[in-house]
Amino acid sequence: MLLHRYCPRFLEMSYERERLIAELAVQRATILTKRVFHEKVKGEVAKDDKSPVTKGDFGAQALIIQSLVKNFPEDQIVAEEESSSLRQDESLTVEIWELVKNIELEDQPSDQLLGGPLPSQEAMLDIIDQGKSLGGPRGRHWALDPIDGTKGFLRGGQYAVCLALIEDGEVKVGAIGCPNLPVDDLASLTADIGVQQTGAGQGVLISAVKGFGATTRPLSNAGLSPGKPIAMRLVTDISQGIFCEGVEAGHSNQGDNAAVAERLGITSPSIRLDSQAKYCSIARGAGDIYLRLPVGKDYEEKIWDHAAGDLIVQEAGGQVTDIYGKPLDFTIGRTLASNKGVVAASKPIHDQVIAAVQAVLKL
Ligand SMILES: Nc1ncnc2c1ncn2[C@@H]1O[C@H](COP(=O)(O)OS(=O)(=O)O)[C@@H](OP(=O)(O)O)[C@H]1O
Ligand SMILES: [Mg+2]
Ligand SMILES: [Mg+2]
Ligand SMILES: [Mg+2]
What we know:
Its cofactor is Mg(2+). By secondary structure, this protein is of the alpha+beta class. The chain has two domains: 12-229, Fructose-1,6-Bisphosphatase, subunit A, domain 1 (Fructose-1,6-Bisphosphatase, Chain A, domain 1, 2-Layer Sandwich), CATH 3.30.540.10; 238-361, D-Maltodextrin-Binding Protein, domain 2, CATH 3.40.190. It is built from 13 helices and 14 strands. A hairpin with a 2-residue loop joins strand 5 and strand 6. The chain starts with 7 loop residues before the first helix and ends with a helix. Residues 195-200 have low confidence and may be disordered. It binds 3'-phosphate-adenosine-5'-phosphate sulfate and magnesium ion (3 copies). 3'-phosphate-adenosine-5'-phosphate sulfate binds at residues 51, 80, 145, 147-152, 246-248, 250-252, 274-275, 295, 299, 302, 305.
């Protein structure tokens, strides 16, 4: 079936509006996260599970949910953060509100597309709490990670603002802002991008629509910069492949990752970076394989940690599965309860990587 790009059915299938709003909403939120990133005190609070959350996470979540509610009032939102700790901390709430109320895109038409500013501090707390949807197999759910890699954000390393639209369990749109990644696709192959990248340049906004490819563009504080398509590298000799993995040893098993690399004959050191910047890096050829091998058997990966990155890698020519070779299943709820770990690589080498993972993990 040939569809003209201005026909309503094409627009519906290509999720043009959802993509535009997602890109702009993420871009606007990165203005806030960049401000907090450069502040000495980032308003760090420990959550019940001991993981950190900051002014940046709360503020970005408020701004993005506001954009979604204004544009897609019928849609559900599955977001990482909620406001209960803030409601007991008036001074932190005031600090976040002071940030949030002053954030806008410098391009007015773009800012207006997002539906204008938040009305008040009290409304901000309520908006943060509109991300409590349980997800599931039916309907439209936005998965939002306002700051992915909060530990990287606090350490001065990589982090990402991540948003994805999941419709009937399938990821349709993904947008990831990586303020500390270099604009040049391949620069991160040669630079130590994992940590201390405060001078790393402008950052990138990477996005994808199911069936329509993946795109990168420099992040901007105004409207969207021109984008260009990205694709994974063609790796003919897997021993020349480049590994990406997490920085935190508690999030993925670096020993097992190294054993897989060795089994594949890979000798170059892995590139370590926090957040879904790993998915973005392999999608644009700054790496070939992303492994997230489980540390313990009980942890369930969260959908907001993977939805946008999964789509971006697939649209750039990659394959994303768990350690059993099973696609990530976004139909279950807020977690990927039926998957274990993540193995992402370009399609031609994915089978080989899975075989090595299974040999190392004795599956
Ligand atoms: N035990 C365990 N296993 C796996 N994953 C976990 C675990 N604990 C936390 N998390 C989630 O890891 C998210 C950050 O992932 P990263 O890829 O940035 O981790 S790493 O630091 O690069 O290793 C992080 O996302 P953010 O909280 O948004 O930073 C968590 O959702
Ligand atoms: Mg977190
Ligand atoms: Mg996360
Ligand atoms: Mg987060």
